[in-house]
Amino acid sequence: MTSILPTIPRLVFTVLEPISLSVAPTIQMKARVAGAVAPFISPEWFVSEQIALSPLESITPNTRMVALQLGNIYLLLAMVGIAVLYTTTECRVVRNYVIALWAADIGHVAITCYVMEYERMIDVANWNAMTWGNIGATVVLFSVRTAYLLGVFGPDRLPAMGKVKKGQ
C-alpha cells in the first residue's frame, strides 16, 4: 500500500473507493450489488435505478451496451486506482490522480443532477441506493479529496526507503 497518503485518505482512496466501484452495497431484487457488478447482473435494473422511482422497463441493445461498458469502466477505475495508489512513490503522481478524480466528481454529480427531474433531485427521502451513490457517495469522496488536496490530513508522507549500503 502506498505510504505517501495520510491515513484517512489512504483508507478512503485505496480501500473503500475501489470496493465501492466494484461491489458497493445496494438492496434490490434480494441482491446486494452495484458498481461494476450490477450492470452485468441486470442491465435493465441498473439503467432503471439511475433515477429514483423509475419503472423497470426493457432496454434496447444500445442501452444494454452502454450499461455493460459502464460496468467495465467501473472495473477499470477500480484497477487504475489500486495500481496508481499502491505502486507509486511519487507525490506528484498521487496528487495529480486525486485532482483528476476531484474534477470527475464535479462532472458526475452535475450530470446526475442535470438529468434528474428537479422534484426527484430535491426529494432526498425517496432517493434510492443508486442515487445515494451517484450523488451522496460522490460528494463524500469529493469532500475527502478536497480536504486531502488542501492539506487537512497533513502533508504527504515520504516513502520508506530501503537502507543503502555505504559506497553504493
From TrEMBL:
Transmembrane segments: 66-86, 98-117, 129-153
Record-linked Pfam families: DUF7704
UniProtKB keywords: Membrane, Transmembrane, Transmembrane helix
Domain DUF7704: 3-155
UniProt KW Transmembrane keyword: yes
InterPro entries: DUF7704 (IPR056121)
Keyword Transmembrane: yes
PANTHER family listed in its UniProt record: CHROMOSOME 1, WHOLE GENOME SHOTGUN SEQUENCE (PTHR37019), EXPERA DOMAIN-CONTAINING PROTEIN (PTHR37019:SF2)
Protein name: DUF7704 domain-containing protein
